[in-house]
Amino acid sequence: MSVAIITGSAGLIGSEAVRYFAHLGLHIVGIDNDMRKFFFGEDASTEWNRKRLEADLKEYEHHNVDIRDYSKITEIFQHFGKNISLIIHTAAQPSHDWAASDPFSDFSVNANGTLNMLQATREYCPEAVFVFTSTNKVYGDLPNSLPLVEEEKRWEIEASHKYYSGISEDMSIDQSKHSLFGASKVAADVLVQEYGRYFDMKTVSFRGGCLTGPNHSGTQLHGFLAYLMKCAVTGKPYTIFGYKGKQVRDNIHSSDLISAFYEFYKNPTVGAVYNIGGGRESNCSMLEAIDICQEITSKKMNYSYSDNNRIGDHMWYISDLSKFKAHYPDWSIKYDVTQILREIYEYNVERWI
After folding, report:
1. Helix 286-297, helix 337-352: angle, nearest 10
2. How far apart are CA 25 and CA 20, in angstroms?
3. pLDDT at residue number 38
4. What is the pTM of this model?
5. What is the pLDDT of residues 70-102, one digit of tens each?
């Protein structure tokens, strides 16, 4: 029996990974205590998604465990031992703004929780593949120093710039403003690399842009496209924070991200780092996303604008996918932003209404 341990298993990326690897025949051990509800309130709870997983998948085994509880984590790892072939660690506190309100919880979840997972892997299944969902916020606000050009509905970078195809892994993670969330994820990212290099473990940090999909429990503080579409459907007011609404994000569908995890799982390396997102194939500005939502719903959105951008927020961020594609040429992006938003709408419209 080959076992995959997936943290944040009822969340967006975790649940997509649960279904994907269960269908490949792995026994799935999910770890998720619905901290998202604690972070962002009842609307952000992932309980609905956990119940769906338990109903749909006989291969799925759920553990309501906090990743900060090392004794509980080691009990799980000790029980399955060397049958564990894969760890996908997605559990996190994911919001800039929330981190500033409770730095201790943010750091203990993101950094200490990751350390617990790494050490348990080292102790009980050191040959397993360890996949970590890091973030492009490890680069802090350094992308905002790029020479950006203002267009009608977006910020853009000059076509002659080396980062036109996207920001690559050679950007510094030092000497910039990260937000406390970004700092705790830097700590976790470097730990994942170090356990790989120091202990010769098969680890990878995927530095994601906006990760999205129909299973996202989007809220104002986290889950850009899912929350935007929810507001478009329900008529709930939406606020654009700063940068004239022209800030650009690349968006990767959870399915495309999980297929990247699978490619690494099949052919892992030690201490790997990859920028991952929609790249040039799937990106949009806030204003462009609102246009797409209005087209899909045939409704005018109720949105307003605030001049105050979020601290450390990116004006323009598109991931350079060339390193991962060179190492794993069978992988490609399947979804663009319009397809993602249409799927979010079709999957959730009845539940939201």
Report:
1. 50
2. 9
3. 78
4. 0.94
5. 999 999 999 999 999 999 999 999 887 889 999
CA distance 120 to 226: 33
Mean pLDDT of the chain: 94
The per-residue pLDDT for range 51-66, each reduced to its tens digit, is 999 999 999 999 999 9
Report strand pairing: 238-241 vs 202-208.
unpaired
What is the CB neighbour count within 10 angstroms for residue 339? 12
CA distances from 184 to 27, 32, 91, 121, 330 (A): 31, 20, 13, 20, 33
Q: Secondary structure of 120-186 in the HEC alphabet?
A: HHHHHCCCCEEEEEEEHHHHCCHHHHCCEEECCCCEEECCCCCCCCCECCCCCCCCCCCHHHHHHHH
Complete DSSP assignment for 244-261: GG--EEEEEEHHHHHHHH
Structure tokens at 187: 């700590």
Closest Cα partner for 104 from 7, 187, 185, 180? 180
**Is pLDDT at 292 greater than 60 in this prediction?**
yes
